[in-house]
Amino acid sequence: MRSKLLTGCLSILLGAAPTQAWASRPGVWTHDFSRDGATGRRSGAAFSESVNGVSAQGDPLGLVVRCRESEPIKVFVFWRASLTTTRPVPVSYRFDKGRETTQPFRPSTDGGATFAPDPLGFVASMARAHRLDVSTFADRTSRRYRASFSLDGFSSAFRNACAWHPEFEASIPR
Questions:
Q1: Contact at 8 Å (CB) between 162 and 168?
Q2: Which pLDDT value is given to residue 17?
Q3: Which residues neighbour 173 within 8 Å (Cβ) at sequence distance 6 or greater?
């Protein structure tokens, strides 16, 4: 069975329907790679649903690392909520049992996702860790959203989706 969240997210990310069937189990990393038929541009994404934490509608949240040809790598959280579209969103995050950090993440144009400010550093931290905890508030409702993501399997999914990208090597810790 396909995960609606995963299929919908990857359709938006890649500009087309995913090319393979997806596991809908939270915490499982999956990937996709595609090439635009008209332009030939490559796109890839590594994606996982939260192991805990859900949207107001009860849907799992999503964590995505996206690579598109001629664009920088991007990392974002799909909150499945309307946060804001007008200003940066404070997002708190912690890798494993490390120190919690709060930084402004840039909102997506629809306000349902936030982009990490230092994607290559974020990817490097993801590759070294086993767990990521994130939280933020929605502007309109003051509701706090929290989620945890397993990072086990992330490095493999990211490599399969984005090894071709020029920033790939710079994002993987040595």
A1: yes
A2: 43
A3: 124, 127, 128
Q: What is the mean pLDDT of residues 131-154?
A: 88
pLDDT band for position 24 (cuts 50, 70, 90): low
Q: How many residues does the chain have?
A: 174
* CA distances from residue 130 to 53, 74, 97, 152 in whole angstroms, order as listed: 17, 20, 10, 5
Neighbours of 79 (CB within 10 A): 25
Q: Give the domain CATH number at 16.
A: 2.60.40.1880
- Residue at 172 is within a domain: no
Asked if residue 23 has pLDDT above 60, the reply is no
What is the DSSP-derived secondary structure letter of residue 141?
T
* Counted domains in the chain: 1
Residue 67 inside a domain? The answer is yes
Domain containing 156 equals 4-164
Q: How far apart are CA 169 and CA 174, in angstroms?
A: 9
Q: What whole-number percentage of the chain has pLDDT above 90?
A: 57
Whether 169 maps to a domain, the answer reads no
The H or E element that residue 120 is part of is helix 119-128
Question: Is 170 inside any structural domain?
Answer: no
